[in-house]
Request: fold
Amino acid sequence: MSSDDAYSSFLDQANQNTRASNAAPNTNIASAKAVDTEIPVGLQDVDQYYTSEADEPFEPVSLRWNGNNMPSENELAGLIGHDSEVSSMSTKEFDPRGQYTEVLQAVEKAGDGKSRIFRIGHGKTRIEYYVIGLDREKKRVVGLKAKAVES
Reply:
């Protein structure tokens, strides 16, 4: 067998299962709790993706909250049932290029006009970003979250 035939055979074997792996998206990204009460309509209409190695869509967040202020990192961790690696970040850190303005505006409109951003770690490379606001009237935290893979 010539080296061209061997190489061709090697490529055929290497590529034989690519169709099966492309058939379903990667659902292996860890996720924390995000909804336990009614979702504001304005958050359901946001159609934007967070750019990372996974390019996942923003999903609504609506969680019961009896506090008068925005939750802290520890309080959010308890609210979503996560036990480590929760940190807050500035809008500039989260959106240095201004590409998530629609997300921030939708969250601020659904809540009391302010938003706060949290980074939730799920191991070394899997992350969730929570952009949340406070809806004092309905006693809930509302917002959007996106999954990300950052290696």
The helical segments are 3-15, 18-22, 41-44, 73-80, 91-94, 101-110. The beta strands are 49-50, 56-57, 59-64, 86-89, 116-122, 126-135, 140-149.
